[in-house]
Design goal:
- This protein is mainly alpha-helical.
- It has two domains: 105 residues, RNA polymerase sigma factor, region 2, helix turn helix motif (Rna Polymerase Sigma Factor, Chain: A); 88 residues, no CATH class.
- Helix content is 69%, strand content 0%.
- It is built from nine helices and no strands.
- The longest helix has 25 residues.
- 23% of the residues are buried.
Amino acid sequence: MNQPNDNQIARWVDLWKAGDQDAAQELFDLYAEKLARLANSNLETRLQRRVSGDDIVQSVFHSFFQRTTNDKIKVEDARSLWNLLVTMTLAKTRSAGRHHKALKRTVDAEAHAESLNYLREGLSQGPSPLEAAVFVESVEQITADLSSRHQEILALRMLGHTHTEIAQQTALSRQTVYRVMQLIEKRILESDDFIS
């Protein structure tokens, strides 16, 4: 199949939103293999026994189709769709790796020193306006009912501050900051609203 143009991509998305399963299949067929290779290349070899690139791609498209149906994502052109699918694939790959590693790791205050680096990485790589909007909306939905103190801790962490620095700035113990960050990370990883 020739690479479809921007109009064809937008048409398939519109048809999918109207309930056309064939359009969804066209989109899936166009990108699934490349995204699966990308996911596999970013999964540690020992984790590939538990999760495959195909599993991750299924999850990516489930999220994508759900969000396009709810008008949370607007596809403008083939490039922005590809960038979004790559971002979602990498985020879900990292999330799968963290999930499977978490089953084996021991509790250690320093083990989570970099627990939300993927959030900072996402911000520092210069997301497209669409990706930024989806990210901000997801974080806002997930953290909407957090106390102002917990929101302050999250904001400081996303700015790159360590648990010790946050504890000093907020007059809390480092252990309290650590527990709050664990709670927030768990909420983010378990949320259906977050691309993970």
